[in-house]
Amino acid sequence: ILGAARRTGLEFSNFAPTATVQGESFDTYRFRMSMQGSYHQIGELLTAIGSLRRVIVPVNVSLAASTSREARANRPDERILTANFDIQTYVVRTTTGEDR
Q: Which of 6, 41, 99, 100 is most buried per CB count within 10 Å?
C-alpha cells in the first residue's frame, strides 16, 4: 500500500496499526492512514487498494482541504486535500492442538 501511495505522489503524514479485533473465524487487522494529495491521487490509491489480491477495505474515509502549508507550497497550482481513513484486512484464525 505504501508503495502504491508513493507511486501516486501522495505525501503520508501517518500510517499506524490500531487494535486487532479477534473473532471466532478470523481476526481483523486495522491501520490508520493520513496523507495529502490531489483528489485524483487519493482516488488512484483507493483504486489500487481495491485491486489488491488480498481483501483490504478502506473504512471511515474523510477528505478535507489540506491545512499543511508545506503540501500546498509544493503544489501551488493544485487543490491539495488531506485524506484520513482506516484500512482493514482479515486473517483466518488457525486452530492448534491446544485449542481442541
A: 41
Q: What is the pLDDT of residues 44-56, one digit of tens each?
A: 999 998 888 889 9
d(CA 64, CA 81): 5
Rg, Å, the chain Cα set: 17
The three-state DSSP-derived secondary structure of the chain is: CHHHHHHHCCEEEEEEECCCECCCCEEEEEEEEEEEECHHHHHHHHHHHHCCCCCEEEEEEEEEECCCHHHHHHCCCCCCEEEEEEEEEEEECCCCHHHC
Q: Can you give the pTM of this predicted structure? A: 0.76
Is residue 82 a contact partner of residue 34, using CB atoms and an 8 Å limit? yes
**How many other C-beta atoms lie within 10 A of the C-beta of residue 82?**
19
